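so my prof wants the structure for this chain in the tokens format not the other one, which i didnt know existed until like an hour ago. anyway here's the sequence
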Amino acid sequence: MAQDPWPRHTIDPVDAETARAGADGVRIGYLNGDLLPDIVTGWEEGNAIRVCINPGPEKSKAPWPAVTVGRVKNAEDAVFADLDGDGWLDVISSCEGKTRSHFVHWAPASAKGLLTESNWKTEVIPATEKREAWMFTLPCDVDGDGDVDLITGSKNQGASVSWLSNPGRESARDLTSWKLHRIADAGWIMSLRILEQEGERFLVYSDRKGAHSGIFISPIAGKAPFFGEPVLIGGGGEEVMFLDLALLDDDGKLDVVASIRPDKTHVIYQPDDPLTLWEDSADLEPLDLETYGTAKAVKVGLIDDDQIPDFVITCENAKGKLKGVLFGTVFSEFEAVSDAEGVKYDRIELLDLDDDGDLDIITCEEKAGLGVVWFENPQ
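here's what i got, hopefully its the right format
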């Protein structure tokens, strides 16, 4: 029997007057000190980086207060990080196309000024300028000096996984002092995640295209060059999209789940030695491409009350009658979350936005004009 779609609420809508279009990704941060999760999104076709301030559970179903923190072209990703250590989260955008640069959007040092566009200052990071088609960035203290560095990945010609070293709090705003270090060659980086366990850290990432396609892990050491040689752990030769890290069994080790285009949700379990090929499991049932679009992103969480990990999936190419947001388990069939409205959904965050005790789904839709949205869990 067909399931009713979940109620969909708009966090930040498309706006024709300001040419706001093409919402591309959602990232979470705690910006204004109220302990509520806020959202940052790059609007690729609208040349804008937008921050949405969480208004609290009672007002979460209406559009959120929002501000354009910078205007840059070809934004593919935006993420929060306090780069200068002043206690306020800045925003870093990653741009592809002809822009091919990273930008820092410096936050004002006052909660009262956060929603005023002119209080934010945008500057390019020279080491990245016009260098690569940057796709995704992960804040991380790579070298252990207490300052936030940036791990980043790009696509197409000359693509890499690289990291930007923070020169220290006193010099962080002098962006000419940030240095770029190449970790590995790449084809098209989709995800970057840090896996921490038993005092060790690893970079886990997905590469979508070319000779380097697959899921890789690289150990992070305590001294230069900090990153070890990446090791393929799964998905070799496949078009791996976004991935997630999750506890999927009772061994206490984080496992990997990844969306693989066009229709796979790939699960691999961490072995005793994470730098060896990980154990393939039985994947979820392939997506029915007559019902859903093609696999784009996956996130693991407890969506219902059966205590079995659920896999929330978003799709692109959900054209016509096809649906773009769904969930299921390794034991159950998929259930649609969205209706047929929406074509190209993206990254997922799972949070209880209405404070009713269950996880809701936050994502964005790039092509059909839905903007930044969340789906209210009816469980």
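also thought this was worth mentioning. The chain has no helices and 28 strands.
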